[in-house]
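Reopening this one. Same input as before:
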Amino acid sequence: MKELKIKTAEGKEYTLAYNRNTVSQMARNGFNIEDTYNKPTIGIPQLFAGAFIRYHRGIKQEVVDAIWAELPSKEKLLEELIKMYQAPIDALLDEPKEEGKNASWEVVE
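Same output, byte for byte:
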């Protein structure tokens, strides 16, 4: 999975990423990716803050907000965050890599 590195003006470094657990936690907390478009004042901050969960659990919201405020190219950053968020969801539907060594299923009527 892709990660995003941030270095603040003060020199502090953060690694942002999502995995299946963080995406699930965000959903349990009410996050909906559609909110980044339909309710951007709610969805965008939640998406950004959620990217800190994997490696920086417990970071204060004020710190996350301050980091967001100083970052340039926010539209491009938002595009990357959306792609990163979607990756663990897409991975749920990945097909097995090895043929013939997999479980099977069938519809029985």
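So the earlier flakiness isn't reproducible anymore. For the record, The first helix runs from residue 20 to 28.
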